[in-house]
Design brief:
By secondary structure, this protein is an alpha/beta fold. Helix content is 23%, strand content 30%.
Length: 294
């Protein structure tokens, strides 16, 4: 059985040569230019002897990604006994082994394509127990919110280095404790779920931050992880808001500079920050397509 170990602080590492590569092209004037782009690789996930999925990922934390994917797809429970997680770099394969027998052949035939980029999938039965979820009571101070968004926007990241990538951060009050990036935001949040499981982290007093849209998929995964507050610099989908309201998840979007909008769980918010001391966001940290809530 996997032994719980102290949780290491996880942050993006834009200096890792495996994660980006330089490519040459031309700019709007026809001049030759060189730019960095993220490298995505296939990673095939096995649960015991059964192949589950092949994901496209930057593959910086394959063990966390594997565990988090299985947890968020309800193929693994938080109280299940995982005996080993084996990553084989040469085969681009990760194998999660459990004490109990598993067989998800029927389940794998009923996938639903989600609105997340890079082929995210969710399964219909994830909604079955949604109405009975009781999220922990928690507080979101606006001082924490502004501290959190400032720290996340200014920490070195693959986005600032190469763009074309999403980020998710798990925060304690105003400070990130686990910050992951990937080509799809569903991969980034799955890594956080795997990190929580692997190290026995308590999610009840945490805040999940994402650079991507607040979709039904992001709401479902946040609720499955037991996190009571979800924040994004981007916008909302109608179903994401409906599901958040159904379970009382605090849902805060368009959090840029001194601005934000809360559409669910507003009772958790404590307005303790004087806005005169908060600056608008620097253009350097703006994300792509923000006018359309990408």
């Amino acid at each position: 059985m996997l032994e719980k170990t102290p949780a290491p602080l996880i942050f993006p590492n834009p200096a890792d040569p495996r994660l980006t590569e330089s490519v040459t092209g031309i700019d709007q004037t026809g001049a030759k230019t060189e730019t960095k782009v993220p490298v995505e690789r296939p990673l095939t996930l096995y649960l015991n002897a059964q192949e589950i999925v092949t994901m496209m990922t930057i593959n910086d934390y394959p063990e966390y990604l594997a565990l988090g994917y299985l947890l968020n797809q309800n193929m693994l429970k938080y109280d299940d006994a995982v005996t080993d997680v084996e990553y084989h770099d040469d085969l681009q394969v990760v194998v999660v082994r459990t004490e109990h027998h598993t067989n998800f052949e029927a389940k794998l035939k009923k996938r639903t394509q989600t609105s997340g980029c890079a082929q995210g999938t969710a399964f219909g039965e994830l909604l079955d127990a949604f109405g009975s979820v009781a999220l922990p009571r928690a507080t979101l101070r606006t001082s924490w919110l502004y501290q959190m968004t400032h720290e996340i926007n200014t920490v070195p990241s693959l986005y600032l280095e190469a763009g074309a990538i999403h980020g998710c951060a798990l925060c304690k009050e105003g400070s990130p404790v686990c910050y992951t990036e990937d080509v799809g935001r569903h991969n980034a949040v799955d890594k956080i779920a795997g990190w929580i499981y692997r190290h026995g982290v308590d999610p009840s007093d945490k805040i999940l931050y994402t650079t991507g849209r607040l979709t039904s998929e992001m709401v479902i995964k946040t609720v499955r992880m037991g996190i009571p507050i979800l924040v994004s610099r981007s916008g909302f989908t109608a179903w994401g808001v409906e599901l958040a309201r159904q379970v009382g998840l605090t849902l805060v979007g368009r959090a840029r500079g001194k601005r934000f909008i809360a559409l669910s769980g507003e009772e958790r918010i404590v307005y303790d920050q004087n806005l005169q001391y908060i600056e608008e966001e620097s253009a350097r940290h703006k994300r792509k397509g923000e006018g359309s809530d990408d």
